[in-house]
Specification:
It is built from 5 helices and 8 strands. By secondary structure, the chain is of the alpha+beta class. Strands 1-2-3-4-5-6-8-7 form an 8-stranded mixed beta sheet, sandwiched between helices.
Length: 195
């Protein structure tokens, strides 16, 4: 597990406690991530058969990328989720939608847990979105989950996303959805903090 202690964003949830986001270390965090991305509940992450070196290589690639970043999310100081942000006009959605200034793409994955907490995944996506909107340059968050991932569609809607329609990507048919800062604030009552 990483010894990275730099916290980029922190949010307190009245029920579930403190959530924070720190940089991901592709070497130190690879073993942790491998357990998360290969877990049966992470099937939509599309890394089910990845080896530990595959995971390390993937996150080294992201760390070196100019328009893609990965982070570890913490709950009460313990690693609990993965967050990625990217420029959708340069990665993932190039040519599939009309990009606007201030668009930020996002992926998130909640770690498997033996003792699930009610409302935890919603608190995670709320934290991820608040962290993204903490950057004043972020005007709109863009997501492209698999059309079959109905659980994440409901979560996205709960934090203010509006579906635009399916788009065909090489690896899946995705439900392109957008969330503006105003929609996020109206859905959650929160605003972004400093990141």
């Amino acid at each position: 597990m990483s010894t990275t202690t730099e916290t980029l964003y922190t949010r307190s949830d009245a029920v579930l406690g403190t959530f924070a986001i720190r940089p991901l270390d592709p070497f130190a965090d690879a073993e942790l991530l491998h357990g998360w991305v290969t877990h049966p509940k992470a099937s939509f992450w599309m890394m089910q058969d990845a080896s530990l070196p595959d995971v390390e290589r993937e996150y080294m690639r992201i760390a070196a990328a100019e328009h893609h970043d990965a982070f570890i999310g913490l709950h009460e100081g313990r690693p609990a989720f993965l967050m990625e942000k990217y420029d959708p006009s340069r990665l993932e959605l190039v040519g599939l939608y009309e990009a606007q200034p201030g668009d930020v793409g996002m992926h998130f994955l909640v770690a498997p847990s033996e003792r699930p907490l009610h409302g935890f995944t919603r608190a995670v996506i709320t934290t991820v979105m608040a962290a993204l909107f903490a950057d004043p340059e972020t005007a709109r968050v863009v997501v492209e989950p698999d059309v079959e991932n109905t659980a994440v569609h409901a979560l996205n809607e709960a934090v203010g996303f509006v579906a635009d329609g399916p788009v065909r990507k090489p690896e899946k048919t995705a439900l392109l959805s957008f969330c503006t800062r105003a929609r996020f604030e109206a859905a959650t009552g929160l605003t972004g903090g400093s990141i």
